[in-house]
Amino acid sequence: MPPIDDATRPRVAGSVELEPRQRAAGDHLRMVHDHFRRQLETLTRAVETLQDAAGDGAADGASEVEAVRAGIHGLAPSLTTQQVAGLCGQVCRFLTMHHTIEDQNMFPAVATIQAYAPVAARLAEEHLVVHAHLERVDDLAVAVRTDAGRIGELVAAVADLRADLESHFAYEETEMSEPLGLLGLGI
Ligand SMILES: [Fe+2]
Ligand SMILES: [Fe+2]
Protein backbone atom coordinates (compact mmCIF):
# COMPACT_ATOMS: atom_id res chain seq x y z
CA MET A 1 0.00 0.00 0.00
CA PRO A 2 1.49 3.42 -0.98
CA PRO A 3 2.17 5.93 1.81
CA ILE A 4 -0.47 8.54 2.61
CA ASP A 5 -0.36 11.46 0.16
CA ASP A 6 -1.07 14.77 1.87
CA ALA A 7 -1.60 16.58 -1.44
CA THR A 8 -4.80 14.65 -2.25
CA ARG A 9 -6.54 15.35 1.06
CA PRO A 10 -9.74 17.39 1.15
CA ARG A 11 -9.34 20.37 3.48
CA VAL A 12 -12.25 22.18 5.09
CA ALA A 13 -11.05 23.46 8.49
CA GLY A 14 -10.82 27.16 9.20
CA SER A 15 -14.41 28.14 8.42
CA VAL A 16 -15.84 28.08 11.94
CA GLU A 17 -15.02 30.04 15.09
CA LEU A 18 -15.56 27.67 18.02
CA GLU A 19 -16.55 28.69 21.54
CA PRO A 20 -14.00 27.64 24.17
CA ARG A 21 -16.30 24.87 25.46
CA GLN A 22 -16.66 23.55 21.92
CA ARG A 23 -12.93 23.02 21.70
CA ALA A 24 -12.93 20.29 24.36
CA ALA A 25 -13.71 17.48 21.92
CA GLY A 26 -10.84 18.39 19.60
CA ASP A 27 -8.51 18.79 22.57
CA HIS A 28 -9.49 15.36 23.81
CA LEU A 29 -8.78 13.80 20.42
CA ARG A 30 -5.32 15.41 20.49
CA MET A 31 -4.69 14.03 23.98
CA VAL A 32 -5.59 10.51 22.87
CA HIS A 33 -3.25 10.86 19.89
CA ASP A 34 -0.48 12.19 22.14
CA HIS A 35 -0.76 9.03 24.20
CA PHE A 36 -0.23 6.96 21.04
CA ARG A 37 2.64 9.20 19.97
CA ARG A 38 4.42 8.43 23.26
CA GLN A 39 3.75 4.71 22.87
CA LEU A 40 5.18 4.75 19.36
CA GLU A 41 8.26 6.59 20.60
CA THR A 42 8.79 3.91 23.24
CA LEU A 43 8.27 1.18 20.65
CA THR A 44 10.80 2.81 18.29
CA ARG A 45 13.42 2.95 21.05
CA ALA A 46 12.73 -0.65 22.01
CA VAL A 47 13.14 -2.08 18.48
CA GLU A 48 16.21 0.07 17.77
CA THR A 49 17.83 -1.08 21.02
CA LEU A 50 17.12 -4.67 20.10
CA GLN A 51 18.66 -4.08 16.67
CA ASP A 52 21.82 -2.62 18.24
CA ALA A 53 22.04 -5.59 20.57
CA ALA A 54 21.65 -7.99 17.65
CA GLY A 55 24.54 -6.26 15.86
CA ASP A 56 26.78 -6.46 18.91
CA GLY A 57 25.88 -10.06 19.61
CA ALA A 58 26.54 -11.37 16.09
CA ALA A 59 22.85 -12.29 15.91
CA ASP A 60 23.21 -15.90 16.91
CA GLY A 61 19.53 -16.06 17.67
CA ALA A 62 17.02 -14.60 20.07
CA SER A 63 18.83 -15.81 23.17
CA GLU A 64 22.05 -14.17 22.02
CA VAL A 65 20.20 -10.89 21.50
CA GLU A 66 18.76 -11.06 24.96
CA ALA A 67 22.14 -11.87 26.45
CA VAL A 68 23.71 -8.68 25.16
CA ARG A 69 20.86 -6.30 25.85
CA ALA A 70 22.49 -3.88 28.26
CA GLY A 71 21.27 -0.30 28.11
CA ILE A 72 22.58 0.34 24.60
CA HIS A 73 20.79 3.66 24.29
CA GLY A 74 21.32 4.64 27.87
CA LEU A 75 17.86 6.12 28.37
CA ALA A 76 15.97 3.26 26.82
CA PRO A 77 15.17 0.29 28.96
CA SER A 78 16.33 -2.83 27.13
CA LEU A 79 13.57 -5.26 26.45
CA THR A 80 13.79 -8.89 25.42
CA THR A 81 12.48 -9.98 22.03
CA GLN A 82 9.46 -11.44 23.82
CA GLN A 83 8.75 -8.13 25.52
CA VAL A 84 9.17 -6.16 22.29
CA ALA A 85 6.78 -8.53 20.55
CA GLY A 86 4.33 -8.01 23.40
CA LEU A 87 4.68 -4.24 23.18
CA CYS A 88 4.10 -4.32 19.40
CA GLY A 89 0.98 -6.41 19.88
CA GLN A 90 -0.33 -4.07 22.57
CA VAL A 91 0.23 -0.88 20.53
CA CYS A 92 -1.38 -2.52 17.49
CA ARG A 93 -4.45 -3.63 19.47
CA PHE A 94 -5.05 -0.24 21.09
CA LEU A 95 -4.63 1.64 17.83
CA THR A 96 -7.05 -0.72 16.11
CA MET A 97 -9.58 -0.07 18.89
CA HIS A 98 -9.14 3.71 18.52
CA HIS A 99 -9.75 3.52 14.78
CA THR A 100 -12.75 1.22 15.19
CA ILE A 101 -14.38 3.78 17.51
CA GLU A 102 -13.70 6.55 14.99
CA ASP A 103 -15.03 4.46 12.10
CA GLN A 104 -18.20 3.48 13.95
CA ASN A 105 -19.03 6.68 15.84
CA MET A 106 -17.04 9.74 14.84
CA PHE A 107 -16.96 9.58 11.04
CA PRO A 108 -20.68 8.79 10.49
CA ALA A 109 -21.63 11.68 12.79
CA VAL A 110 -19.18 14.10 11.15
CA ALA A 111 -20.38 13.05 7.68
CA THR A 112 -23.84 14.42 8.53
CA ILE A 113 -22.27 17.88 8.09
CA GLN A 114 -22.15 17.95 4.31
CA ALA A 115 -18.95 19.95 3.97
CA TYR A 116 -17.12 17.44 6.14
CA ALA A 117 -18.36 14.23 4.49
CA PRO A 118 -15.38 13.99 2.07
CA VAL A 119 -12.95 14.51 4.98
CA ALA A 120 -14.61 11.75 7.02
CA ALA A 121 -14.43 9.42 4.01
CA ARG A 122 -10.78 10.22 3.46
CA LEU A 123 -9.90 9.65 7.13
CA ALA A 124 -11.65 6.26 7.02
CA GLU A 125 -9.61 5.32 3.92
CA GLU A 126 -6.42 6.28 5.74
CA HIS A 127 -7.31 3.85 8.52
CA LEU A 128 -6.91 1.04 5.97
CA VAL A 129 -3.37 2.23 5.21
CA VAL A 130 -2.52 2.41 8.91
CA HIS A 131 -4.08 -1.01 9.44
CA ALA A 132 -1.80 -2.53 6.78
CA HIS A 133 1.19 -1.07 8.67
CA LEU A 134 -0.10 -2.51 11.95
CA GLU A 135 -0.44 -5.98 10.46
CA ARG A 136 3.09 -5.83 9.12
CA VAL A 137 4.52 -4.66 12.46
CA ASP A 138 2.59 -7.36 14.32
CA ASP A 139 3.70 -10.11 11.90
CA LEU A 140 7.35 -9.04 12.07
CA ALA A 141 7.27 -8.81 15.86
CA VAL A 142 6.17 -12.45 15.92
CA ALA A 143 8.80 -13.42 13.32
CA VAL A 144 11.62 -11.73 15.26
CA ARG A 145 10.90 -13.92 18.28
CA THR A 146 12.31 -16.91 16.39
CA ASP A 147 14.50 -15.15 13.80
CA ALA A 148 16.51 -12.26 15.27
CA GLY A 149 17.92 -11.55 11.78
CA ARG A 150 14.62 -9.89 10.84
CA ILE A 151 14.93 -7.10 13.41
CA GLY A 152 15.99 -4.62 10.69
CA GLU A 153 12.71 -5.23 8.89
CA LEU A 154 10.79 -4.59 12.12
CA VAL A 155 12.67 -1.33 12.75
CA ALA A 156 11.79 -0.17 9.22
CA ALA A 157 8.15 -1.27 9.60
CA VAL A 158 7.76 0.68 12.84
CA ALA A 159 9.30 3.77 11.20
CA ASP A 160 6.92 3.48 8.23
CA LEU A 161 3.93 3.07 10.57
CA ARG A 162 4.99 6.10 12.57
CA ALA A 163 5.38 8.33 9.51
CA ASP A 164 1.92 7.58 8.11
CA LEU A 165 0.28 7.57 11.55
CA GLU A 166 1.69 10.98 12.48
CA SER A 167 0.52 12.37 9.15
CA HIS A 168 -2.94 10.88 9.78
CA PHE A 169 -3.14 12.17 13.36
CA ALA A 170 -2.16 15.71 12.37
CA TYR A 171 -4.70 15.82 9.53
CA GLU A 172 -7.43 14.37 11.72
CA GLU A 173 -6.75 16.83 14.54
CA THR A 174 -6.87 19.77 12.14
CA GLU A 175 -10.04 18.70 10.37
CA MET A 176 -12.07 17.11 13.17
CA SER A 177 -11.92 19.87 15.82
CA GLU A 178 -14.58 22.03 14.16
CA PRO A 179 -17.18 19.33 13.34
CA LEU A 180 -16.70 17.66 16.74
CA GLY A 181 -17.20 21.02 18.42
CA LEU A 182 -20.27 21.83 16.33
CA LEU A 183 -21.81 18.43 17.00
CA GLY A 184 -20.89 18.49 20.68
CA LEU A 185 -19.32 15.09 20.22
CA GLY A 186 -16.81 13.50 22.51
CA ILE A 187 -14.74 10.56 21.35
FE1 LIG B 1 -8.10 8.20 12.77
FE1 LIG C 1 -7.67 9.37 15.78
In short:
By secondary structure, this protein is mainly alpha-helical. It has helices spanning 24-56, 62-67, 81-110, 117-146, 151-183. It has a single domain (21-179), classed as Four Helix Bundle (Hemerythrin (Met), subunit A).
- Name given to the CATH architecture: Up-down Bundle
Number of helices: 5
Work out the oligomeric state of the chains in this entry. Answer: single chain
Proportion of strand residues: under 5%
Count of strand segments: 0
Q: How much helix, percentage-wise, in residues?
A: over 70%
Unreliable stretches (pLDDT < 50, length at least 5) are 70-76
> What bound compounds does this protein have?
fe (ii) ion
**Large-scale geometry:** elongated
Rg of Cα set: 19 Å
Largest sheet, described in full? none
Mean pLDDT metric? 89
Following the backbone from N to C, one meets helices and strands in this order, namely HHHHH
Provide the CATH topology.
Answer: Four Helix Bundle (Hemerythrin (Met), subunit A)
Q: Whole-Å distance between the termini?
A: 28 Å
The chain-level structural class is mainly alpha
At the first level of CATH, what is the class? Mainly Alpha
Count of structural domains: 1
